[in-house]
Structure formats: structure tokens, C-alpha cells
Write a structure and sequence with these properties.
This protein is of the alpha/beta class and 269 residues long. It is built from 9 helices and 9 strands. It has one domain: NAD(P)-binding Rossmann-like Domain (Rossmann fold, 3-Layer(aba) Sandwich).
């Protein structure tokens, strides 16, 4: 059955790949970007099934207008994908207030504004699927990514609560948690802090770990996202790739072990 999508950050990366996959199979997709001219190839290839919209997700009014335009043009929305985001690389101490706020504005408040704008349309139909693009960094923290981790951990908490709020209304929420893929997340779209020399050993160790793994082809995620969108009872969480499993399993086990080791002190409170 044909679906209607709303995808943020569709100029490149996951957003572009998923939009093209949905359009190629006959779905209709409202695609947003800060530079809508970057979406022209989708319109050239798929005609009026692709609706290019200007939307900076940090601009709540622009987001609301884009969602409304998509719903009015296509008649309804089935799948809302909050994909727009970027990586902020640097130590917590190095991060400026401007950088921290910008990271949260895009990675947390952007999905919040889109979700709030879309929910009235989804509630009216008593159906829909909100897909929140998080990260392995939304479940485990890594040095040099403190504020990125903060934005994704917050997104996960908000989305888990959201799922419980809208589930009774017939609306699904899935938090997608990719491992390392060859997108532009750490490339030209990334922001980096001014380094403090004292942290260079930490930074060097992080670089060494990153070069030891080869990022996967993001194109491999397209069929997974399409199947997720077609699932009648989608999961609350879904990894993309198998890379996150051992990392998250170890992180959760470490937390359990630590909590239990300190249970006697906790019990005295």
C-alpha cells in the first residue's frame, strides 16, 4: 500500500537514501532541507510524488508550515522521519555555549517541533509512525561526543515517553540507532571545538579507535527502513547494523554490575 512520508534532512545521507527508496517503490515523500534546491533531482526523477520543502528544523514556525503543507498537499501523513542532525566533536570542557545550544536545537528540539506539528494530523487518522533517528551514541557515551551524546540521550528519553503517550491513539514510535555508516555525519556537516592540549591523549585514542573500523555503506539501510515502515507492530528501538550490539550489551551490563556493587550504600538512603 502506498505510503506518504515526511523526512527531514533529505539533502544527503540517510534522509536522501530513504527518500529515494520510498519514491522508487511508488510512495509519496515530502522532503525537507535548509537548501531546497538540493532536492531538485528528486523532483526531476519522481515528479509530484516528491514534495521539496524548505525547513531548518531549528525554526519551529518553518517546521510547522512545512508539515502542514505536506499534509495538505498529500492529504495525510503515514511516516514521519526525524533524520536531520549533525555531530559535534569535542570535549565537554571545550564546548562553547553556542555550540551546545545549536547541537540541542537541531538534534533534540528539531524532532520535538516536527513531532508536535505532525501529531494533530496523525491523531486525526488514528494511525501513523514516527521514526526518530538516534544513534549508538544515544545508548552509550563516548569521549569527544559529550554534547552529541546528550542530544541523543534526551531524544531517546523523550521518544520513549512519547511512545507511551501516543500508542493508545494508534500511533507508533521507533527509535532507530545506527552504528557507524559512511554518511557525512563526521564530515563537512560536523562541528568541532577548539582543542585544549591537555586532552590530546584522549583525542588520539579516540582517533585510533575510529580508524580501526570501516564504516558500512548507508545504502544498505534502505530496505530495512522500508520494511520497518511496512510493519504493523514496529519495535520501539531498532539498531541499524550489528556493530552496536556488543557495545550496548557491555554498557548495560557495566551499569547493572555497578549499581549492584553499590547496592548496600544505596540501601542506607
Amino acid at each position: 500500500m502506498e505510503k506518504t512520508w515526511f523526512i527531514t534532512g533529505a539533502s544527503r545521507g540517510f534522509g536522501r537514501i530513504w527518500a529515494e527508496a520510498a519514491l522508487a517503490r511508488g510512495d509519496r515523500v515530502a522532503v525537507t532541507a535548509r537548501r531546497p534546491e538540493s532536492l531538485k533531482p528528486l523532483v526531476d526523477a519522481y515528479g509530484d510524488r516528491a514534495l521539496p520543502l524548505h525547513a531548518d528544523v531549528t525554526d519551529r514556525a518553518a517546521v510547522t508550515d512545512a508539515v502542514q503543507q505536506a499534509a495538505e498537499t498529500f492529504g495525510h501523513l503515514d511516516v514521519v522521519v526525524n533524520n536531520a542532525g549533525y555531530g559535534l566533536f569535542g570535549m565537554v570542557e571545550e564546548t562553547t555555549e553556542e555550540q551546545a545550544r545549536a547541537q540541542l536545537d537541531t538534534n533534540l528540539f528539531g524532532p520535538l517541533w516536527v513531532t508536535q506539528a505532525a501529531l494533530p494530523f496523525l491523531r486525526a487518522r488514528g494511525s501513523g509512525h514516527i521514526v526518530q533517528v538516534s544513534s549508538i551514541g544515544g545508548l552509550a557515551a563516548f569521549p569527544t561526543l559529550g554534547l552529541y551524546n546528550a542530544s541523543k540521550w534526551a531524544l531517546e528519553g523523550m521518544s520513549e515517553a512519547l511512545a507511551q503517550e501516543v500508542g493508545p491513539l494508534g500511533i507508533h514510535v521507533t527509535i532507530v540507532e545506527p552504528g557507524p555508516f559512511g554518511t557525512d555525519w563526521s564530515g563537512s556537516s560536523a562541528v568541532r571545538t577548539d582543542p585544549i592540549a591537555a586532552y590530546e591523549p584522549v583525542r588520539a585514542a579516540r582517533r585510533a579507535g575510529a580508524t580501526a573500523r570501516a564504516p558500512k555503506d548507508p545504502q544498505a539501510t534502505a530496505d530495512v527502513i522500508l520494511e520497518l515502515a511496512d510493519t504493523d507492530d514496529p519495535p520501539l528501538r531498532l539498531f541499524l547494523g550489528t556493530y552496536p550490539y556488543p557495545i550496548v550489551e557491555a554498557a548495560y551490563q557495566q551499569r547493572l554490575d555497578l549499581w549492584n556493587a553499590w547496592r548496600p550504600l544505596a540501601a542506607r538512603a
